[in-house]
Amino acid sequence: MRNLLAITIVVLATSFFGCAEPNSRCALVPVQNNAIEALAGKNAARVFEPQFGGILENPIAEARMKRIGSRLAGSAGVPENLLQYHLLDSEKLNAASLPVGRIYITKALYARLESDDLLAAVMAHELAHLVYRDCFKPRCKTLDESLQRELAADAFAARHLELNGFDRDAMLGVIRIIKPAQPQSWHIARSENLGYFQDERYSEVAGSDSELLAENAGGDTDSSAQADERRRNSQLDSLALYN
Question: What confidence tens digit (pLDDT) does each residue in 84-104 have?
Fold first, then answer.
């Protein structure tokens, strides 16, 4: 019971107050050792799901996610029977994961994933956080630390999209979709991490210099610094796929 309590606390800490979002980064554990962590994940889900509107029953969407997930699981070496797929009844652009294989996508984000390639990119990204057991790691203390985890998950996703016959560029498409929800300039770092330099598609994601200047415009130096600090604090305590 003490081990279960400790694991549950870790899961909730990383899911709701950690690494650039309160949510996801959770772990997929070996089948023979997953009982305690699975129960911890179940307890965490009871807290997490209501925060995002609860589960939205959609058999068609769940079947689509399962079909795509079965392809991705194979190349990632993940037992397919451990994975669960759910829509969340939330208007936020979001995706998340919890032990021992719960993958969540909000209805708002799902509605933007018109192709199987885009959906596969989101799912592969969340699968990466499960494989890397990110939710059982200490909470990220800085946005840069959080970004590094996202870069690793993006690279994993792009690799497994290719391995399973999906369009690798779909990961860039997802970065474009979630750009408004990410910390400032993350979309640039994530695009460059995937190798999109001096590329027309990269330019579409990165935006123009004038756009970046506009994002930084307004107020005096002290006010801008205070606003940036408030933004960083908010982003470290918020949930979004940029996790």
Answer: 999 999 999 999 998 889 999
